[in-house]
Amino acid sequence: MKAGVSKLDITPPAGVKMGGFAMRYKGSEGVHDALYTRALYLEGKAEALVFIANDLLNIPNSLALEAKREISKTLGIKESAIFISATHTHSGPSLPPDISSDVPGADIDGYLDLLHGRLVDVASESAKHAKVASLGWGVSKVIVSFNRRNLGGPVDPDVNVLLVVSDSGLPVASLVNYACHGVVLGDTNYLISADYPGVVSRVIEERLAPGHVSLFTNGATGDLNPLTSAGYACSGTFEDVEAIGRVVAYAAMNAMAAARMYEEMTIRSYERFVTLPLVKLSEEEALRFVEDQEKVVSELKAKGSDSESLMRNEALLQYYRKNLNMVRKMPTDENVLVNLQSARVGDVALIGIPGEPLVEVGLRIKGRSPFKSTLVIAYANGYCGYIATSEAYEQGGYEVTPTWWNRLARGAAEVVIEESLSLANELR
Question: What pTM was estimated for this model as a whole?
Answer without folding.
Answer: 0.97
